[in-house]
Every structure is written in structure tokens, then in C-alpha cells.
Design goal:
Heme Oxygenase, Chain A; about 75% helix
Length: about 240
């Protein structure tokens, strides 16, 4: 019998693989302007992680500073260190990709370069709905799907060829190393919340809705290297292969 953890991973995998396929198709033909377009969108995402889990680096840093007087009193120093390490890691991801964008654009980064695309906004709305109104199951589903199984970084870390590709691969390898175990950790936590068949069905519904929107977000970011029909067909084939 398949474990609950594996069931959850099986739900997400077809969508994560679709994200990876979109990225592979993009990188095969991407020009300098194409790299600039997706990096602007990805950098916006790096500074604005999942609302309900991580509320934007500026706010998180401000809150962390405010918590410092409580360290050693109501806050354990090890917990505070973990928080700081998370913040440093997230900002490092931004710095790495910002360096690539500056190379691509041949100029310094501006705040105006960061772009929230329409499909990303829809994704944020769906995530917030599940985080704030979906109960523990909904919030757990958002946690598992947050990084799309590190699909983009798994593909990007293997890029070769141009200077842009080399810089991208170096940055994405570091990000992948930081995040590669995230979905498994979240799946383990989520599995503990599933007590009934109804719980699993709720988790599946939430995961599939968030994951599908992630695919549309990624396809838009990469300027639609796959049609909607191709995306749906790809996901369907992957789902059938897992059954």
C-alpha cells in the first residue's frame, strides 16, 4: 500500500514535471530579452514568498529585528537563529538571480525591474484562500506545493553554454541545494494531518488547484513555450503514468 507521503508526492509530481518541461523548452531557444523577462518576474517572487508562510522579506526582516529583545526570554536563541538563517537564505537567492539579471540587462538593477505578472497574482490569491480559509489541510497543501518540487532550479542548474546560462546554472544550483528537500519535509508534516479519506480528498483538491495555477504562472513567465492544450496533455500523461 502506498504511504500517505508518497500519495501526496504523486499528486504534485505531474504538475512539477510540467513546470520542468516548460523550463526546458524555454531555455532551448531563449534570447537575452527572454531571460530578462522571466528573471524580472522570478525576482519579484523571491522578494514576495508565499503569503501566510513568509510575508515578504522587508516585513520579515522588520519583524525579526523587533523580536530580538525577546531572545533568551520568550524566544529560544536557536529558534531565532533558524529564522535568521531562513531570511539570509531567501535574500541570497534574490542576490544570485539579481546578479544574473544585471549581466543580462548590462545595467544595475532597479526596483522597477521587478514585475508581478497576472498569473502570479492569481496564484497568490489562491494560496491566500487556502492559507486563511482552508484550515490545516489547506495550509499544508500550500506548503507542499510552494516550490513546485524545485522544478525550475532542477532544470536551471544543468544549463550549459553561454555566459548567461553558466551564471544561471551556478545560481540555480545553490538555490536547488537549499530547497531540494522542502517538498518532502512539507509532505511529511501534511501526512500527519490526514486522518480520513475526506482529508486526503481535500488535500488533493487544494494541491491540484495550486499546482495547476503554478504551471500557468510558470508558462506565462517563460512566455508560453507550451500551449494550454500541450500543458494539459502533458499533465494528463504524467498522471496516467503514476497510476
Amino acid at each position: 500500500m502506498i504511504s500517505k507521503i508518497q500519495q501526496l508526492i504523486n499528486i504534485g509530481t505531474p504538475y512539477w514535471e510540467a513546470e520542468a518541461e516548460i523550463a526546458r523548452k524555454f531555455y532551448k531557444t531563449a534570447k537575452r530579452d527572454d531571460h530578462a523577462f522571466y528573471l524580472r518576474a522570478q525576482l519579484w517572487k523571491e522578494l514576495n514568498p508565499v503569503d501566510g508562510f513568509f510575508n515578504g522579506l522587508h516585513r520579515e526582516l522588520t519583524q525579526a529585528a523587533a523580536l530580538f529583545p525577546k531572545v533568551g526570554k520568550s524566544i529560544d536563541r536557536h529558534d531565532y537563529l533558524f529564522l535568521l538563517e531562513q531570511l539570509v537564505s531567501e535574500y541570497n537567492h534574490f542576490v544570485l538571480l539579481a546578479d544574473v539579471l544585471e549581466h543580462v540587462q548590462r545595467r544595475k538593477l532597479s526596483k522597477r525591474d521587478l514585475k508581478q505578472l497576472p498569473q502570479e497574482k492569481i496564484l497568490g490569491d489562491i494560496r491566500r484562500h487556502y492559507v486563511h480559509k482552508g484550515g490545516k489541510i489547506g495550509k499544508a497543501a500550500v506548503g507542499i506545493t510552494e516550490g513546485g518540487g524545485t522544478a525550475l532550479f532542477r532544470v536551471g542548474k544543468n544549463l550549459k553554454g553561454s555566459k548567461i546560462n553558466q551564471m544561471t546554472a551556478k545560481a540555480m544550483k545553490i538555490i536547488w541545494e537549499d530547497e531540494k528537500d522542502h517538498y518532502m519535509v512539507q509532505a511529511q508534516l501534511a501526512a500527519k494531518m490526514i486522518k480520513t479519506k475526506s482529508d486526503m480528498n481535500k488535500m488533493r483538491t487544494a494541491m491540484e488547484e495550486v499546482s495547476l495555477q503554478r504551471v500557468w504562472m510558470r508558462n506565462e513567465m517563460f512566455q508560453n513555450p507550451m500551449t494550454k492544450e500541450e500543458v494539459k496533455s502533458y499533465i494528463d500523461r504524467r498522471q496516467q503514468s503514476i497510476k
